[in-house]
Amino acid sequence: MEDVLQLKEQLKEKDRELAILKNKLAQLEKFSASNCFPTDLQDKITVLAPLTPKTSLTNEDIMRFSRQLLLPELGVKGQLGLSKTSVLVVGCGGLGCPLAQYLAAAGIGRLGLLDYDEVELSNLHRQVLHSELTQGQPKSQSAAQAIRRLNSTVQCIPYHLQLSPDNALQLIQQYPSNLSNQ
């Protein structure tokens, strides 16, 4: 009889675990249905089209970047330069997350996010673009989702790859900075 009681208790615990997992799945499906989870994760390198340069700032751009437009070192010309700049961030962890976040917030034109790892609970306290809802996802995809929520005008390209001697040149050549042309 004692064995039966232990088995019933184990079954109750498994039912609780299953309920938690079902709840988590429902949340993920809800976000997926609202297009928060992009499906354009790159597992290979494809040739990117050049960025279309902006010739002027929209009213929304002026409102969004008003504080940095006031800086004499940046101004409208510098903001337009940022919008035609591409950056490849290698690693979407403790350093890559804030770098990507600030580049996107500043108005960079294209942001490549390269990481081969997946989001784990132990990442969340220091890798600020990831969340509990993105656990198990590739870090590059999780970071891209957060970037798109921050600034939807940034072209964000997540790569679920590891940088290697075989792909480094091909990847890096796709992200010319254009900052030297200012």
TrEMBL record:
GO terms for molecular function: nucleotidyltransferase activity; thiosulfate-cyanide sulfurtransferase activity; URM1 activating enzyme activity. Residues 65-175 form the THIF-type NAD/FAD binding fold domain. Gene3D superfamilies: NAD(P)-binding Rossmann-like Domain. Pfam families: ThiF (PF00899). One of its GO terms (cellular component) is cytoplasm. SUPFAM superfamilies: Activating enzymes of the ubiquitin-like proteins. Residues 4-31 form a coiled coil. It comes from the Eukaryota. Keywords: Coiled coil. One of its GO terms (biological process) is tRNA wobble position uridine thiolation. This is THIF-type NAD/FAD binding fold domain-containing protein. It comes from Alosa alosa (allis shad).
